[in-house]
């Protein structure tokens, strides 16, 4: 899966793109112009921010755009697409942008996208992948029968316990979304929504929270340097730990250690 921010540009002459990978796109601003897919004109020419569409592979997308916009693009490889489509039961219901669907939490999406620019490089792949899955699952909810989507996977107590043990055992190393999904014996698309339903948290945030809890314990018990503690908890540096710690608890690891040591 590849998540890209694609800058828009006006085209006064008809511009044609042939998509080679299945792609879900969200317009990140308003646009105006004429568009067609495989020679079939779209019924709209004014596109709101957050307009959602799916472009299957080998589709020619032609447009003459007076006011173009940036795009958030989520492109799938063949295996991911077959998995995703099979889950959603959506082969005959792919949405074009004139279907009137809009990403409902558009403001939060903007926040997440810009947040990717500031994320630590160690977490960038996890964060991008998680955002792509989030968008894919939202799209699926637009086209999949609700009963199938609700029952597409669940995490029972033993699976959650196994996941918790796996995360604790691997906090010091890189933990990816696919690794967690494999541990739960679910696809990435099943796993992300099932994990959120079961825990109220995203897999990424859960991992970060567990790393911070371990950091708290080590800061209270160990006199190791904060850099060494950061690496032991799976953070890439002192700065990476400090940023996450302060965001969560409102104080730096250094201040936290000083306060807990004086008690």
The domain tally reads 2
- Write the element-wise H/E pattern from the N-terminal end onward: EEEEEEEEEHHHHHHHHHHH
Oligomer description: single chain
The name of the CATH superfamily of the largest domain reads: Homeodomain-like
Q: Which CATH architecture of the largest domain would you pick?
A: Orthogonal Bundle
Q: Determine the number of helices (DSSP H or I, runs of at least 4 residues).
A: 11
Instruction: Compute the number of strand runs.
Output: 9
The CATH topology name of the largest domain reads: Arc Repressor Mutant, subunit A
Mean pLDDT: 80
Helix/strand/pairing class, anyone? Answer: alpha+beta
Question: What is the CATH top level name of the largest domain?
Answer: Mainly Alpha
Based on CA atoms alone, the radius of gyration comes out at 22 Å
Helix percent reads: 40-55%
Largest sheet: 5 strands, antiparallel
**How far apart, in Å, are the first and last alpha carbons?**
49 Å
Which descriptor suits the 3D outline?
elongated
Low-confidence stretches: 88-92, 147-151
